[in-house]
Write a structure and sequence with these properties.
Length: about 500
């Protein structure tokens, strides 16, 4: 697939092939300053009058108390903390507005923040699916396959994290195999484990083997994606993991998963205020542990079918919420993660791509800097689809062209193209066309733009089937990026020692 695409569009010369996107178009600012002030003031009021509950992590409570938070012991290892208006925002002043996450291939390092945008595959699905085998629990083989597919696409910039759950590996050991798969089969930046503090520490230690301990202490090479327990709770597993990443000077994403009407208000302004309160507190914790540690503001806003109670994705209201979160992140001068190619469809069909486009366009137009779930998200994130991953990555290619914008100069105004032959003459052979034909337009690897007759005579193949063929071809021709055998050997030794040190746990 890639060879065909490269041959048809001058791939090596195409300026869209970049390690990350530097946006060339303005963001879409939806709300007035007055409306933004109201949302931020409501977030402050939530923190001051209702507070955040912390569980099973007295050290985090101590750090926030030391910074001015007021704690009330609720018993059973639970505390409610309240914060005077502006206190949490003040703690965020030391968080970097932009930072680099280094990849083992320096040419693949990504810049996160400012005008930079990074696409990463979907994260966290227990199931995988394809047109051949249907829906099934994910395995470590699926995990490795999906890492390889992401690595093979020029339109993603990051290897992601838990692309699917490898359920054939014990819960307490699978993080070792997942991090090793990212290192072995991709040379891009990646996310580490967050499901237990010791697994976070293992992920960071594997990066010390890969990059060297001194380099890791000075630079961000791995990030953790942490969820609050909405509404208004941070549990000890998450906060201890956040502290582990921050202490090692590594990055973290702080993400409430807000389902409107269930764990957040139905009305989007209220959900945004809650999201802001929860995410700011997570980000602030990093700065209490190590000022200057990279932290990313997170937003996962979701609607719900009030007839059935099911989550709905790709709807317009959360898309509008993403636009507002972009404005707030710029106000706070912090990087933002939000939205992605979201869908509740059970197949990579028209519903899947329509919902995905609504959600993904909100992410790119709001100015998000790190977009997890850029490829493969299906079934309300319960399933990672091989075919949807290929279709989404193709869409990400189109978004590279969209975000590049338009450059207006003498050459692009192309007066000479019309003047060369004059009225009534085609432009196929003019000098301007010959100069630009390889790079003027983004060229899809999966779309069929033939006539109906040509398409029909070739078998009438639909997009899902073309995507099915594409992922198989990609895996058949995949070659892993070179990795120093000594480093890989040291990683394998570390994994073997850690696995031998604990019995298997399946829950």
């Amino acid at each position: 697939m890639q060879a065909r695409r490269g041959a048809s569009s001058g791939r090596d010369a195409n300026p869209l092939h970049v390690p990350y996107i530097t946006r060339g178009i303005p963001t879409h600012d939806l709300l007035s300053d007055e409306a933004l002030d109201g949302i931020i003031a409501t977030a402050d009021r939530i923190l001051a009058e209702i507070g955040i509950e912390f569980r099973e992590d007295p050290e985090t409570v101590r750090l926030f108390q030391q910074a001015g938070g007021k704690a009330r012991d609720l018993g059973d290892d639970r505390w409610n903390l309240t914060f005077e208006p502006g206190l949490i925002r003040g703690l965020l002043a030391t968080a970097p507005a932009e930072f680099t996450q280094h990849a083992r291939n320096p040419a693949r390092s990504v810049r996160i923040g400012g005008r930079s945008m990074v696409f990463a595959p979907a994260y966290g699905s227990p199931f995988v699916m394809d047109l051949d085998k249907g829906r099934r629990y994910g395995t470590i083989e699926d995990f490795r396959n999906l890492v390889k597919l992401a690595q093979s696409s020029p339109w993603l910039h990051h290897s992601g994290g838990t692309i699917c759950e490898p359920t054939d590996v014990p819960v307490n050991k699978r993080h070792l195999d997942m991090v090793h798969a990212h290192i072995r089969y991709s040379d891009r930046a990646f996310l580490g484990s967050i499901t237990a503090p010791e697994r976070a520490e293992d992920s960071i230690e594997m990066c010390r083997i890969l990059f060297g301990a001194d380099f890791v202490d000075r630079n961000c090479v791995i990030m953790g994606n942490f969820n609050s327990t909405s509404p208004l709770v941070w549990d000890g597993v998450s906060t201890r993991g956040i502290r582990a990443y921050a202490a090692a000077n590594q990055g973290s994403i702080h993400l409430p998963f807000l389902l409107g009407g269930a764990v957040s208000p139905l009305t989007m302004p209220g959900a945004i205020a809650q999201c802001l309160a929860e995410s700011m507190v997570g980000c602030a914790l990093t700065q209490l542990v190590r000022p200057g540690a990279p932290a990313i503001l997170g937003s996962f806003l979701s609607s719900m079918s009030l007839r059935t109670g099911s989550p709905t994705f790709g709807t317009p209201e959360p898309a509008l919420g993403s636009l507002v979160m972009g404005q707030i992140a710029r106000r706070l001068n912090m990087p933002l993660r939000c939205a992605g190619n979201f869908s509740t469809s059970k197949l990579p069909d028209a519903q899947a791509m329509t919902q995905s486009m609504m959600s993904m366009m909100s992410a790119v137009n709001c100015g998000a800097n790190f977009i997890l779930h850029s490829a493969g998200f299906l079934d309300g994130l319960l399933s990672m689809s091989y075919e949807k991953m290929m279709l989404d990555m193709d869409l990400c290619g189109a978004l590279h062209a969209w975000l590049r914008g338009l450059e207006v100069n003498e050459d692009t105004l192309a007066f000479e193209a019309l003047a060369e032959k004059g009225p009534g003459e085609h432009l196929f052979g003019c000098a301007h066309t010959l100069r630009h034909y390889q790079t003027a337009y983004w060229d899809s690897a999966l779309d069929d733009n033939d006539t109906h007759e040509t398409w029909s005579e070739a078998g009438g193949v639909d997009a899902m089937t073309r995507a099915n063929r594409a992922w198989k071809e990609t895996l058949a021709t995949y070659e892993a990026p070179p990795l120093d055998p000594a480093i890989d050997g040291a990683l394998c030794d570390f994994i073997a020692r850690r696995k031998a040190a604990m019995p298997d746990a399946w829950y």
